[in-house]
Design brief:
293 residues; 7 helices; disordered N terminus; 20% helix; 2 domains; signal; four-stranded mixed beta sheet; Rossmann fold; five-stranded parallel beta sheet
């Protein structure tokens, strides 16, 4: 289970740009109108690339075990999809309801203000299976109906998931081979990124189907600013210890909904905190991989 402490910045709800009433009934395709004035670029991610055109945009995923690069085309509603691109999925934007298959995607969805459009696509092997979904905030959202949850019928299993009955337009899945009959599966491999800055930049990717690039850029800039501040404090931290940093011992861990405990990793694979990079730079001794506490 990949669950990262990514977002500590609280932002107020932004204007709803996903209202279908804002769709064009007639699309201007002569090049005189740019339907995507707010654009996102991936400057830190090694997995994602982006191209913009006046009436559609294209993302490319270069990390993973599936069809690489995975190409997703996002077409402004009312406009014509390009016929020259071999797309894995074509999404009309701004999109409506969508599914997710991993709890590690919830922070991105939350800070983009999209919880009311999210459907929890639950299956037996998924990290969203009810008995591992322990966060009270999201439990309350499910129980109150703010967050929708698929209705299970029969015994859940790897191959039995069919999202066509859930009314979702696409599904963010966790980066392995899509499980079941998913509507327009979109692969998410943020966990393959080299550092937390790159992982955080994936909020821009989650924003693409909803034309929320402006909001995503602002959120990312604020979070990265906090990361940069922590990095700038390295000298202050270092001045507290005049001895060999290797004499220091630290333990890094992240809480896992799946394991229901703290997962300890010496190499900071879990990207538990922005201080992982600091500790690595200082060369401190880290507690070994001891599993779940």
């Amino acid at each position: 289970m990949k669950l990262f402490s990514l977002f500590i910045v609280f932002l107020g709800a932004s204007a709803n740009l996903t209202d279908k009433s804002q769709c064009s009934t007639e699309c201007v395709e002569d090049g005189s109108v740019d339907y995507f004035p707010d654009k996102a670029s991936f400057d830190h991610s090694t997995c994602l690339r982006m191209e913009y055109f006046n009436t559609y945009k294209v993302s490319y995923l270069d990390c993973g075990s599936g069809d690489i690069p995975e190409t997703i085309v996002y077409v402004q509603c009312g406009c014509t999809a390009p016929t020259t691109i071999n797309a894995n999925a074509t999404i009309t934007v701004p999109a409506g309801d969508f599914g997710i298959q991993s709890t590690s995607h919830i922070p991105y969805v939350h800070y983009l203000g999209l919880l009311d459009q999210m459907v929890l696509e639950i299956e037996f092997s998924s990290s969203l299976y009810p008995y591992t979904f322990t966060d009270n905030c999201h439990k309350d959202n499910v129980e109150s109906g703010v967050t929708k949850q698929r209705k299970q019928s029969g015994t859940p299993g790897l191959l039995g998931l069919d999202t066509s009955e859930d009314g979702v337009e696409f599904v963010f899945h966790e980066g392995y081979n899509p499980k079941g009959n998913l509507t327009n599966p979109i692969t998410c491999t943020e966990w393959l990124e080299k550092d937390l800055v790159a992982q955080t930049e994936w909020i821009k990717f989650f924003a693409l189907p909803f034309n929320k690039e402006r909001e995503a850029n602002e959120i990312f800039d604020q979070i990265k600013g906090t990361m940069d501040c922590i990095g700038a404090n390295t000298d202050t931290f270092s001045s507290l210890y005049s001895t060999d940093y290797k004499a220091l011992t630290v333990m890094t861990a992240a809480y896992s909904e799946w394991s229901e405990g703290w997962v300890v990793s010496a190499d900071c694979e879990v990207k538990v905190d922005w201080y992982c990079t600091l500790f690595e730079d200082l060369g401190v001794t880290k507690v070994g991989n001891v599993g779940v506490l």
